[in-house]
Specification:
372 residues; alpha/beta; TIM Barrel; eight-stranded parallel barrel; globular
């Protein structure tokens, strides 16, 4: 039986060799938004992993949109030059297509890196004023964000467009807009974080307005033949919050505006969330969004085993499967999945003697003994 996980898939003018996606994974190791040697190693290993698509981590469209001072940005020439070096390396040695996730953290910005506690940063410690749809802190007693006015909304929309233009100069294959995990666009979607009384708040249509405007603006700046998608949180896991019904409505509106794929995650809006985590715990959300919208869908969340991933795509729950922590633990996961599923994943020629299908091949300079 031919593996569905390792079947190619087309998104506009782009073809992925298989359905395995390396999720954006924050590394908190950039300098003023600019990637360095760590990112060359981190992304380079995934470029040669056999995955069909590799995402750069959440990339802030303005300095104040970064989660931490160590997060990646794409708002300066220095940021662009740093990413250009990483892209060149991945293109030179890898086979994976490259995606960029554009993001703004909103009220969850200006935080310490996780291994130092992840708490909000004071101005004296390098922090900055955060922004949000409404002046509501992420956690009770936390710093209060400034509610965005019309000028602020226009600035941020423009920052997404400018980052997309830089991404095009860098020749990324596709873009994903981050509207999940409690960051700014998710904050507009959820009634728990959006208490505005203007055209961007209140009912579902109004709460979707700014995320849709951002999407439309980026779609207008991004070439017609290159895919543009979005990541959403399908549920806040809080009663009265953003939910699956809203996610389907958003997916349908995005489809009308030229969205090519939707990456379905969940949670992250507020500490009150009660997430019921477990193997593939978000796949049901992806399946419903796919069924009701018809959009190409990426499933993510504790997908760890090859046959689990194969089942997700073969059963039609999603079209692609994204892995994060499993790829950190085992950067050669696609090689091993291909072996388990009777398929083939790309691997660099420098590593070919390590591959099970080629073990026993002679080492250069040590030809095999002559046959008797």
């Amino acid at each position: 039986m031919t593996s569905k996980l390792f079947a190619p898939i087309a998104l506009r003018g782009l073809e992925l060799a298989n359905r395995i996606v390396v999720s954006p994974m924050c590394q908190y190791t950039a300098q003023d938004g600019t990637v360095g040697d760590w990112h060359l190693m981190h992304l380079g290993q995934f470029a040669v992993s056999g995955a069909g698509l590799v995402f750069v981590e959440a990339t802030g469209v303005e300095p104040e949109g970064r989660i931490t001072p160590g997060c990646v940005g794409l708002y300066s020439d220095e940021n662009e030059a740093g990413l250009a070096r990483v892209v060149r390396f991945c293109r030179s040695y890898g086979n994976a297509k490259l995606g960029l996730q554009l993001a703004h953290a909103g009220r969850k910005a200006s935080s310490e890196v996780p291994w130092r506690g992840g708490k909000p940063l004071a101005a004296d410690d390098g922090g900055w004023q955060t922004v949000a749809p409404s002046a509501l802190p992420y956690a009770p007693g936390g710093p209060e964000p400034a509610a965005l006015d019309g000028e602020g909304l226009a600035r941020i929309k423009g920052a997404f467009v400018q980052a997309a233009e830089r991404a095009l100069r860098l020749d990324f294959d596709l873009i994903e807009i981050h509207a999940a995990h409690g960051y700014l666009l998710h904050q507009f979607l959820s009634p728990l974080s959006n208490r505005r009384d203007d055209a961007y708040g209140g009912g579902l249509e109004n709460r979707m307005r700014f995320p849709l405007e951002v999407f439309e603006a980026v779609r207008g700046a991004w070439p017609e033949d290159r895919p543009l998608g979005i990541r959403i949180s399908a549920s806040d896991w809080i009663e009265g919050g953003w939910d699956l019904d809203g996610s389907v409505a958003l997916a349908l509106a995005l489809k009308e505006r030229g969205c090519d794929f939707i990456d379905v995650s969940s949670g992250g809006l507020a500490p009150a969330q009660a997430v019921e985590a477990g193997p593939g715990y978000q796949t049901g959300f992806a399946a419903e969004v796919k069924r009701l919208s018809g959009l190409t869908t990426i499933a993510v969340g504790l997908v760890t085993e090859p046959r689990q991933a194969e089942t997700i795509v073969r059963s039609g729950q999603a079209d692609l499967v994204a892995l994060a922590r499993m790829m950190l633990f085992n950067p050669r996961w696609p090689w091993h999945a291909a072996e388990a599923l009777g398929a083939r994943a790309d691997f660099p020629p420098q590593y070919q003697r390590s591959h099970p299908s080629l073990q026993g091949e002679p080492i250069p300079g040590n030809p095999p003994p002559a046959k008797a």
